[in-house]
Amino acid sequence: SYSVSSAFDFNSALFPLSSSGAGYTAIGTPQTPHGFDLRAQQSLEKHKSLTYLNGLSLVIGLIIGSGIFSSPASVNSNVGSPGAALVIWAIAGLLAWTGAASYAELGGAIPLNGGAQVYLSKIFGEWAGFLFTWCAVTVLKPGSAAIIAIIFGEYVVRAVIGADSTDVSPWINKGVAMLGLFFVTALNCTSTKLGTRSADFFMFFKFFGLLAITIAGIIVAVAGLAYNKDTLSTTWKTTSWFEGTSTSSSQWAVALYAGLWAYDGWDNTNYVVGEMIHPSRDLPRTIHTSLPLVILAYLLANLSYIFVLPSDIINASNTVAVAFGHTVLGPIGSLLLALTVSGSCFGALNATTFTAGRLVYSAGKEGYIPSLFATIGLSPNSHQMRLPRRPNSSRGKKFTDWIADEQGFFYTPIPAMLLNSLITALYIIAGDFTTLTTFYGVASYLFYFLAVVGLIVLRVTEPELERPYKCWIVTPVVFCCVSLFLVSRAVFATPVQAVVVLAFIAAGIPLYWLRVGRRKNRRRKAGAGGDSFGLISGLIGLSLCAAQ
Ligand code: ARG
Known about the structure:
Helix content is 72%, strand content 0%. With 548 residues, the chain is mainly alpha-helical. α6 crosses α13 (192-226). It is globular, with a radius of gyration of 23 Å. It binds arginine. Arginine binds at residues 62-63, 65-67, 144, 148, 261-262, 264-265, 348, 352. The site of arginine has 13 residues, from α6, α11, α15 and α19.
């Protein structure tokens, strides 16, 4: 019989007592409540295809998105001085790194797809994993993807129509955003390989873009020092880097949020640990290469902005990168930078779609949403899409070989991917992004906090659990303290919004009862009614949230 327990030799061996309670009953049985064959549902994880490079590009590909090209304004203007802004970029980076290192330990100890969903279920009980999944599937993943898509649209329009065109109808931006979403979805539905190959490509593209910004900044600085001091920005010439630093803690907090958005996405590889070929080796390697690289790249890019642009432009412009390009190379520079930022956002959209599809898939696998979403391919019964391997080579075969894995499979959870993109599209249309960003910040940090607290709990309750990677205990403690501060600060600063977020999370509790609790009592009967109820209440929740 097939079960995750036997595939990973993890469930029953390591959590013997919790196997009846902590939510793995659905996986442990060969049939879902809806009668689909689970063998196929596990085939994504059985079919391991992700390498170290893929892991790296999924993390870096999502982290480097829009933030580094547009957040500097809110960082600089809030903390008040270039020196303090660099401090914020360093702190935000280190904080992301502590979180990612903690997640690397969790991912090694619990090597399954799903990220926080499986960690919370294992450690606190299935309800916690369910609430995370509820928020992640309905808001966190599609909401953040919509933000990235909209910024993609804005920059493409800017590149086409001209850098300072401000009077473009938002619907044009949104239309382009939809087009980007459509392409990314098509790529990721076609094959896993195609999704990861494009992630790899965009990772290099982004690094190249940031490197170009850094080199341009250095050239301007060196040339300015050597020949003509006037080309240097006023910021660079003032001797005091910390002059004007703000002393208001709330301004520092707002700057920190902006920095954290730019570093967010460090948990992206954790969603697909189950598909990694060598998770215990490659997950920590992925984290400890990608985070320092991104921190370095961000600090250098910010230094370049400071070298080239006067503070008032950095503070005021939401499109620092385009202003940078304009100062260095004129109109061609702004065009190049607008294209770079759109490419970067497209890559981030690709990386988040790849993993969001997997998260929805594993929610289906757990029975949280209709099990149609836990199938591979397009129809409930086409779980594997095997490509014909014709002996005579033709051009078509070359392409299909290129997008399939060694055995000729191109596995991808198409229904899950489509659901995620559909919800993302709704957010792009509805798009009130201030609400969405606040929601995103509070809810995501709440769940990061819980998962990392879970790491500490797990150290105490399961000391014998095999941990291929164990982080320094100070790491999760620091992360917990800071993220708790961030969440509670948001609660005090914007109590109404915080209550909305908490209410939305709490709305998952009755759903949990319908989808999971009842099933636990009366195994097979809970299916059909729950399906439609789940979907309807999901949609109501979505529209409430959009209306907010
Ligand atoms: N860091 C990304 C950016 O700068 C945003 C990542 C959003 N996070 C996520 N989990 N989708 O655009």
